[in-house]
C-alpha cells in the first residue's frame, strides 16, 4: 500500500505577516532560515502588492533577493494583478499565486475589482508566467464563506476553478479565508470542484479562527487533497475576520498528519523551533497548540 504524501507549503512569511506591523528584513531572514531548517519544500515568501495597503510586504524585492541561498525550496509570491506578477517574475520568483474571490464585495475590498474582473485576469497572469516558465497557481479565496455576503454558492467556486483550468493555470487551491468551514462542507466543495479541473493539482488553505481548521484540513486530505498551506505558530489572519486566530499552525498540522500515517517533508521539532522564532519576531504570543504544549513524550 502506498503511503499518502501531503506537501505542506509554509506561508508564515507572507500570509503570516500580512496583518502584523512591519518587521525588519533581518528578522524576516532569521525566520526564513528557521523555516528552511524544517525540511519544508515549498514556501510562500512574500507578496508583490501595494505597499500602502500591505506595508508588511513593502520589502518583497529585498526578501526575494535572498531566496537563492535556499536552492532546494520552491519559493512563491502572492500577486493581485498582472503588474504584481511582472514584478514577482522580475525579482526572480519561479512560482506565483493569484487570488480570486467569488464574492464581489470581498473582491472589491481586497483588490479593487469585481469577481468577474479578477477572474478575467487569470489569462493575463498565466501568460506572464508562461513567458518566463513560472508556475502559476490560482487561489480561490472565501471559497466557503464571505465576511460580507455570507455562504459562498459552490457554483461560483466551480466557475472560477473551470476558468483557471481553461486559462492554463498550473495549480488550484481553495481557501477558507475567514476560518468558518467544517469537514462536511470541505468534502462537499471538493466533490463539486474536482470534476471540472481535470488533473490540475488541488490544494487547501484553512484558518483556525473557529477551531475547525485542522479538522477541515484533515477532511481535505481524506478527500484526496495533497497540498496544504500552514504557518508556524499559527501566525497570521485575515484583515476582514476580526479576532481571527490565524492560519492552521504548521507544527500542529505536521503532528496530526504524521501521527495519522501521512507522509510530510516537514520535521516536527524544526517546526516548533521555527514557531518560537516567529513569536519572537512579532513580539507576541501565537495560537499554535504545540508551541504551548510541545510534542508528547515518547518511550
What's the topology here?
Layout: E1 7-10, H1 12-16, H2 25-36, E2 42-48, H3 60-64, E3 74-79, H4 82-90, E4 95-100, H5 104-111, H6 115-120, H7 122-131, E5 135-140, E6 145-146, E7 150-151, H8 154-166, E8 171-176, H9 183-193, E9 202-206, H10 213-222, E10 227-230, H11 250-259, H12 268-282, H13 289-293
Parallel strand pairs: 1-2, 1-10, 2-3, 3-4, 4-5, 5-8, 8-9, 9-10
Antiparallel strand pairs: 6-7
Helix pairs in contact: 2-12, 4-7, 9-10, 11-12
How would you describe the overall organization of this protein?
- With 299 residues, the chain is an alpha/beta fold.
- It has a single domain, classed as TIM Barrel (Alpha-Beta Barrel).
- The protein is 40% helix and 16% strand.
- It contains 13 helices and 10 strands.
- It has helices at 12-16, 25-36, 60-64, 82-90, 104-111, 115-120, 122-131, 154-166, 183-193, 213-222, 250-259, 268-282, 289-293, and strands at residues 7-10, 42-48, 74-79, 95-100, 135-140, 145-146, 150-151, 171-176, 202-206, 227-230.
- The strands form 2 sheets. The chain has an 8-stranded parallel barrel, surrounded by 5 helices. It has a two-stranded antiparallel sheet with strand order 6-7.
- Helix 9 (183-193) links the parallel strand 8 and strand 9 (202-206).
- Helix 2 (25-36) packs antiparallel against helix 12 and helix 11 packs antiparallel against helix 12.
- It is globular and about 50 Å long.
- Residues 6-272 form the Pyruvate carboxyltransferase domain.
- Keywords: Lyase, Metal-binding.
- This is Hydroxymethylglutaryl-CoA lyase.
- GO terms for molecular function: hydroxymethylglutaryl-CoA lyase activity; metal ion binding.
- Belongs to the HMG-CoA lyase family.
Amino acid at each position: 500500500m502506498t503511503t499518502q504524501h501531503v506537501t505542506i507549503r509554509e506561508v508564515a512569511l507572507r500570509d503570516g505577516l500580512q496583518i502584523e506591523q512591519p518587521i525588519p528584513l533581518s528578522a524576516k531572514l532569521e525566520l526564513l532560515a528557521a523555516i528552511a531548517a524544517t525540511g519544508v519544500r515549498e514556501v510562500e515568501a512574500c507578496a508583490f502588492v501595494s505597499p500602502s495597503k500591505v506595508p508588511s510586504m513593502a520589502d518583497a524585492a529585498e526578501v526575494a533577493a535572498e531566496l537563492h541561498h535556499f536552492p532546494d525550496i520552491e519559493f512563491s509570491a502572492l500577486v493581485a494583478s498582472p503588474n504584481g506578477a511582472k514584478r514577482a517574475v522580475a525579482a526572480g520568483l519561479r512560482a506565483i499565486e493569484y487570488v480570486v474571490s467569488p464574492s464581489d464585495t470581498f473582491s472589491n475590498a481586497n483588490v479593487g475589482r469585481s469577481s468577474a474582473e479578477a477572474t478575467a485576469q487569470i489569462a493575463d497572469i498565466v501568460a506572464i508566467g508562461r513567458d518566463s516558465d513560472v508556475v502559476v497557481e490560482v487561489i480561490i479565496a472565501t471559497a466557503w464563506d464571505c465576511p460580507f455576503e455570507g455562504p459562498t454558492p459552490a457554483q461560483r467556486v466551480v466557475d472560477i476553478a473551470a476558468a483557471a483550468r481553461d486559462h492554463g493555470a498550473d495549480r488550484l487551491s481553495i481557501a477558507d479565508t475567514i476560518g468558518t468551514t467544517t469537514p462536511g462542507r470541505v468534502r462537499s466543495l471538493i466533490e463539486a470542484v474536482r470534476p471540472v479541473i481535470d488533473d490540475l493539482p488541488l490544494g487547501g488553505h484553512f484558518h483556525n479562527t473557529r477551531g475547525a481548521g485542522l479538522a477541515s484540513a484533515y477532511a481535505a486530505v481524506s478527500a484526496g487533497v495533497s497540498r496544504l498551506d500552514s504557518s508556524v505558530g499559527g501566525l497570521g489572519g485575515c484583515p476582514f475576520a476580526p479576532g481571527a486566530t490565524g492560519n492552521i499552525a504548521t507544527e500542529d498540522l505536521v503532528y496530526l498528519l504524521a501521527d495519522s500515517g501521512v507522509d510530510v517533508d516537514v520535521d516536527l521539532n524544526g517546526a516548533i523551533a521555527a514557531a518560537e522564532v516567529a513569536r519572537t519576531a512579532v513580539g507576541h504570543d501565537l495560537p499554535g497548540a504545540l508551541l504551548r504544549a510541545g510534542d508528547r513524550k515518547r518511550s
